[in-house]
Amino acid sequence: MKSSWLWLVVFVVAVSGIGALIGMNFPPGPWFDALQKPWFQPPNSVFAPVWTILYVMIGIAGWRVFCLEDDPRLRMMWIVQMVLNFLWSPVFFGLETAGGALIVIALLWLVLVSFIRLAWVEERVSAWLFLPYLAWVSFATALNGAIWYLNRGL
Q1: Is pLDDT at 150 greater than 70 in this prediction?
Q2: What is the 3-state secondary structure (H, E, C) of 83-139?
Q3: I want to staple 94 with a disulfide (CB 3.0 to 4.6 A). Which of 68, 83, 90, 114 is the partner?
Q4: Residues near 61 by beta carbon (within 8 Å), at least 6 away in sequence
């Protein structure tokens, strides 16, 4: 499986496709619309383009980690972050629980930091690819936390 361009396409399409499917199956709905939002809540239209770009970068990093690198720790962290990433929308929008989603996204943030720290030594390109992802997840964690805080009585 070493460095095949076909595998690059597979990673990017799989990550982006699964992310899009989850987004379509767990969209913001009446529950979300009724929540109090913090002042820094962006319009819903911002999320799809941002995630599309991030999913391409995540897919490229996954391809690099699985095809160019032999460290099983990086591979495992990449898989764990994908599971947590894909779990967030079903927990937040599906189960309608901002508190549960806050736990998921906090764990995701920790895994991203760990991935970047390890990749910085072993696979620096993947670490760079994950920096915008970490920035967005940091923002999303603050947003999720603010929504939970503003609506904790619900």
Answers
A1: yes
A2: HHHHHHHHHHHHCCCHHHHHHHHHHHHHHHHHHHHHHHHHCHHHHHHHHHHHHHHHH
A3: 90
A4: 78, 119, 125, 126, 129, 130
Q: What pTM was computed for the model?
A: 0.93
| Largest Cα span, the chain | 52
Q: CA nearest 147: which of 52, 38, 71?
A: 38
The yes/no answer on whether domain 5-150 falls in CATH 1.20.1260.100 is yes
For residue 99, the Cα-to-chain-centroid distance in whole angstroms is 17
DSSP-assigned letter for residue 46: G
Q: Which residue has the tokens 């736990």?
A: 103
Render pLDDT for 3-55 as a digit per residue (tens, 0 to 9).
688 999 999 999 999 999 999 999 999 999 999 999 999 998 999 999 999 99
Non-local (6+) Cβ contacts of 106 within 8 A are 141
Per the CB < 8 A criterion, the answer to whether 141 and 106 are in contact is yes
| CB distance 110 to 134 below 8 Å | no
* 125 vs 68: CA distance, rounded Å: 11
**In the block, which residue shows the tokens 């709905």?**
29
Q: How confident is the model at residue 154 (pLDDT cuts 50, 70, 90)?
A: low
